[in-house]
Sequence to fold (591 residues):
Amino acid sequence: MSLTQEQVRRIAHLARIEISDAEADATRDQLNGIFALIEEMQAVDTRGVAPMAHAQEVAQRLREDRVTETDQRTDFQAIAPETEAGLYLVPKVIE
Amino acid sequence: MIERSLKALAQALAAREISSVELTRLYLDRIARLNPSLNAFISIDPERSLAQARAADARIAAGEAGPLTGIPLAQKDIFCAKGWRTTCGSRMLDNFVSPYDATVIEKFDAAGAINLGKTNMDEFAMGSSNETSFFGPVRNPWDTTRVPGGSSGGSAAAVAALLAPAATGTDTGGSIRQPAALCNLTGLKPTYGVVSRYGMIAFASSLDQAGPMARSAEDCALLLNAMAGFDERDSTSLDRPLEDYTRDFAAAADARPLAGLRIGLPKEFFGEAERAGCDAAVMRLVDEAIAEYRRLGAETVEISLPNMQRSVPAYYVIAPAEASSNLSRFDGVRYGHRAAEYADLNEMYSRSRAEGFGAEVKRRILIGTYVLSHGYYDAYYLQAQRIRRLIADDFVAAFRQCDVILGPTSPDTAFRLGEKAADPVQMYLSDIYTIAVNLAGLPGMSLPCGFVEAADGRLPAGLQLIGNYFDEARLLAVAHRYQQVTDWHRQHPELD
Fold:
């Protein structure tokens, strides 16, 4: 498997990471090296093996649906890039 | 004073030989003097540390001290600590002052320990050399032209250089054990789920686990006593009874204290051909440690972990996949870096992330995004998870034949700064002995087993012990017995 520059640009778009053409080229070469390592997995016969998502086979805990957090909006918004009237500001989304 | 164990420091505090304020100042002065050449700490805040020390002194005076009250500890900068700048080694969080405490921080605060400062690390814990930190590389105190390992390299360098009596680390693929090996420390990655991940900035959530880094197994046990425990705020925290991890240390004096212990030696590490995967001088030290364990009464059995070799490729699918999801939270909206200029929302995201993340973090996000994308999920992500199952099953089978598994921690001693930085795959292979343990969720530790002499000095080597699930107390005791008859772990680099 070998990624093209176009594929690298598409992945970068999906990941929302801006990337220049020069960066995409360098990144492609490095990713192809890493994927050569990853491809070693394909040599293993895993038919009939159940995928293991997690180290411990435990069920998700449930809890009562009640308010447990206190209001910390001021503290949390004090570290935000831009806020106004208790809201997070972002560029206009809908014209 | 600074060479003492945690137990001896607690005794000195109890005997009023020194106050916590004096002890904290001692370390802060040493940090001020030596940190500029090591870069082990990203943030220190002497006023905060000393305020905690004053409170600890009051607690000691009131006769309410616990085993860690008044003892300064360095915290890896991956743990959110209220009021502390918490960067995770990234430009993305350069300006982030945490509004809350991680559970680990809360527990150490409750124990009366002092937060001495936040230690440098590979960016978002992604690295094995500490060279991916936005705040510059950490230097190994044994040879400052070499790396301390990573990702918990700042914690390792700080403790090795006696800038802190002990520290915390986190381990996703070897990030406690490998730097411990490269800096002559004892470090433990507990069973997945034993220490809460709440407030520990996430890298790969199904693998991340916090643990202690210290100068002996005894010190690690004392730290783990404070760190472990159920936490309802971490959905994968395990609800188990609390344990005393020091419980197996005090046994009757015996020339063969480990009689009956079966140590498994994987042929994937020790087979004639497989030995070549490890530096020969490191392997010799591991062999000598095995001989020492036999003298202590342990017997060795050959075991096999047939899928061990596939752990690195499987890890480099699973960990980046989880990372790409976890790091999507850094979008420049609620906290962290936001680009100065952008035309619309998408450009704000993509530019903030392009500026905020370093090259290695971007690589892993891209790998993760790709392996999770439509059409590739089965071939990569599911295949990796199936191999993960095979690896875990190998360990289950091995632990039917033995009580602990032994091997090298790292295939090399500390390498030179820049030596592997240009080749990600070479860097990834640094963790070849440690990654399988995270995939299986088992506890593993590294302890000093000697020094490799080189023309320009000597470098420490690490021995890895892997235990069955929840067998931390036994692992620590097995390490402790070795440390009772060896003095590798007591040796320090010459810095002054």
